[in-house]
Write a structure and sequence with these properties.
This protein is α/β, with parallel strands linked by helices. The strands form 3 sheets. Strands 6-9-8-7-10 form a 5-stranded mixed beta sheet, with no helix packed on it. Helices cover 26% and strands 15% of the residues. The protein is rod-shaped. It has 6 helices and 10 strands; from the N terminus they run H-E-E-H-H-H-H-E-E-H-E-E-E-E-E-E.
């Protein structure tokens, strides 16, 4: 027994597709007020004496109608909406002598359109364009005007998210230059330790005679300890190219290096004195701190891998790890004019 074919699904709940609009070749399409400017309509055959196309709208006309949309206010006289006003899109076909220049240009375009019409589109008694052709012209012209206005408006470029700063690549282990710098840093530390121990021996030898009485006195106990060495040592290169220890560094620098919350990298016992204040930190700087002294503009103190200090007015955000605040200090570095 043959099976029946499957019946088509029920169209219940589905909207039927809208039929495609086809303009009549013999009469103008009826356009309601709510449909003005929604789509282009073709004029019936025999409407024009010669071929007619809308002109290119000048820029000043587009600027005017961008801020003053061409609308016609329609007030209902009866019905449930009596007395209410509605704005209908349109294009002007008549204006006063003192109307804006853009409005007068649109009216001139309408008269040019009217001059191209055949008698079939014009009322013989009044000399006016028939309502069907007039409504069709205003709808097409309004849509043409809005298309020109949209083409005039610039398109905003896409906003790309901010890119994170590129991390600094650590030096390679097998780099000969890095190994040489590390060896120089080790030799420098040994040299500074030797200087410190030599200075301590000389200090104890000079004070031995003055402390003889205190040594003979059993109540005084053992030898008095020498003063503890400073928490850091700053060196600078002299004119002859030899590095010497700075005995009297600037007070602002001593205050910063003695701060309890200074980063670990700035706690090296042997560091190089910074050069005068510059605009930006050198590329060898691995870490920086932002310093704020009362009464002075903020600046940055950076340190390199070998303990070389540098000061500058600006620094990369990725290098700054700490912000420190201090009281005013007259020795704070300033930019020379």
């Amino acid at each position: 027994m043959p099976l029946d074919s499957v019946p088509p699904p029920s169209p219940r709940g589905k909207k039927p597709p809208q039929p495609k609009h086809v303009c009549s070749p013999s009469s103008p399409c009826p356009i309601r007020l709510s449909d003005v400017g929604k789509r282009f309509h073709a004029f019936p055959k025999g409407t024009f004496k010669a071929r007619y196309s809308p002109p290119i709208v000048p820029k000043y006309v587009l600027n005017h109608f961008t801020h003053h949309a061409p609308v016609w206010t329609w007030v209902t006289k009866d019905g449930p909406n009596k007395g209410k006003s509605f704005q209908v899109p349109t294009t002007p076909v008549a204006c006063a002598k003192n109307a804006p220049r853009a409005v007068r240009w649109m009216v001139a375009v309408f008269h040019s359109f009217k001059a191209h019409l055949n008698p079939v589109a014009i009322d013989a008694d009044s000399g006016r364009v028939h309502q069907g052709w007039l409504r069709l012209y205003q709808s097409n012209m309004y849509l043409h005007l809005q298309t020109q206005i949209k083409a005039l408006q610039p398109r905003c470029p896409p906003i790309s998210p901010p890119q994170p700063p590129k991390p600094r690549s650590p030096p390679s282990v097998g780099d000969p230059l890095s190994e040489l710098r590390a060896e120089i840093h080790t030799l420098r530390e040994k040299f500074y330790n030797y200087i410190k121990s030599h200075e301590a021996c000389c200090t104890r030898g000079s004070d031995q005679s003055s402390d003889a009485s205190s040594e003979a006195d059993p109540e005084q106990g053992s030898d008095p300890l020498s003063p503890p060495p400073p928490a850091f040592a700053l060196v600078e290169t002299g004119p002859d190219g030899v590095e010497v220890v700075v005995s009297n560094p600037p007070s602002w620098l001593s205050t910063v290096l003695k701060a309890p919350d200074i980063p670990q990298r700035f706690q090296d016992r042997h560091m190089t004195m910074p050069a005068p204040l510059t605009t930006s930190l050198p590329e060898s700087v691995l870490e920086a701190i932002k310093l704020r002294f009362v009464g002075s503009p903020p600046f940055y103190l950076g340190v390199s891998r070998l303990g070389a200090l540098a000061v500058a007015t600006t620094a990369e955000r990725s290098l700054v790890t700490t912000i420190l605040n201090f009281p005013s200090d007259p020795s704070v570095p300033t930019r020379r004019p």
